Amino acid sequence: MTYAAGPAPALGPALDLLASGPLVVLTGAGLSTDSGIPDYRGPGRPPRTPMLYGEFVSGLAAQQRYWARSHLGWGRMRHAEPNAGHAALVALDPDLLVTQNVDGLHERAGQRSVVALHGRIAEVVCLDCRAVSSRAVLHDRMTEANPGFAERHAAVTVNPDGDVEMDDVEAIAGFVVPACEECGGVLKPHVVFFGENVPADRVERCYAAVDGLAATGGTLLVAGSSLTVMSGFRFVRRAAKAGTPVVVVNRGATRGDDLATYKLDAGCSELLTALAARRGRLPATA
Ligand SMILES: [Zn+2]
Fold first, then answer.
1. Which of 104, 202, 243, 280 has its CA 20 to 30 A from that of 1?
2. Residue 103 sits in the same domain as residue 32
3. Among the options 71, 106, 118, 190, which is catalytic?
4. 183 alpha carbon to ligand 1 midpoint, in Å?
5. Residue 72 and residue 3 in one domain
6. What is the pLDDT of residue 7?
7. Domains in the chain: how many in total?
8. Does the annotation count 118 as an active-site position?
9. β-strand 119-126 against 187-191: which pairing, if any?
10. Are 129 and 151 within one domain?
11. How far is the CA of 130 from the centre of ligand 1 (A)?
12. Is the predicted pLDDT of residue 38 greater than 80, yes or no?
């Protein structure tokens, strides 16, 4: 990995602000694009509607549609590796890192203090007995129950939530969805679906960290999120309301641009690496 030669002059004031003081960081899909996981809200991507919670729990047909596509996506996503942006954030070691990503790459990179706001795609929860189990184990069970399925649908586009574009109605209707090994119940990825609430304890931990910045002269840094969903945007509103500076790094417009002290239209890996160098915390070579 190489370091950026130095920030462009326009980035200077934002890096000056971020150069010292406590940090809380909020990350989104834009952080993982350099790991090969596409950002479905990024520039040039077609609009897409993930399955709502209410639809998932509506019955077997919806669950087959979800799992058939997710099975294909996970086969790719599980091999993604943390990138320079993740490494720079480990080096920066913010008071708290809040991520909207479910890919688990911050944890894999060794981030110390993480709240995975929307859960982790590598875990599965039973809707009946609430047992949490490994996605890798379920993946093997699904592969076994659906011989040749992944091979027949190898050419698919993977989205950040592990879903793919695949509309083969017949294949979906024939997809076998394994049940919970504990109780035979319905399995769901252990992530927060649209139409579902983020668990309150997670939200409170994030609010506490953001509120703490006001007292300590810290900054909220948003990296790679368009802030489209309220689950992340509310922390930006909270910080701005308290007079805490907010810096947004994202390719393309975000819902928080009007609240940001500085908005940087830049790639996360480059900017975060430059910031880590500025704060004297060079990331370990990936
Ligand atoms: Zn169960």
1. 104
2. yes
3. 118
4. 4
5. no
6. 45
7. 2
8. yes
9. antiparallel
10. yes
11. 6
12. no
What CATH number should be reported for the domain holding residue 172?
A: 3.30.1600
What range does the domain containing 70 cover? 46-79+122-191
Do residues 86 and 10 share a domain?
A: yes
Same domain, 145 and 72: yes
Domain finish residue from 168, 191, 214: 191
pLDDT tens per residue across span 198-229: 999 999 999 999 999 999 999 999 999 999 88
Which domain-ending residue is among 159, 191, 223?
191
Tell whether 207 and 271 lie within a shared domain.
yes
Determine the distance separating the centroid of ligand 1 and the alpha carbon of 175, expressed in angstroms. Answer: 20
Note whether 203 and 224 are same-domain residues. Answer: yes
Pair 136, 4 in one domain: no
pLDDT of residue 53: 95
For 112-116, 236-240, 266-270, which range has the lowest pLDDT when averaged over its residues?
266-270
Q: Ligand 1 centroid vs 135 CA: distance in angstroms? A: 14
Per residue in 3-16, pLDDT (tens digit) is: 444 445 458 899 99
- Ligand 1 centroid to residue 231 C-alpha, Å: 28
- pTM reported for the whole predicted model: 0.88
CA of 121 to the centre of ligand 1 (A): 18
- Model pLDDT, residue 272: 96
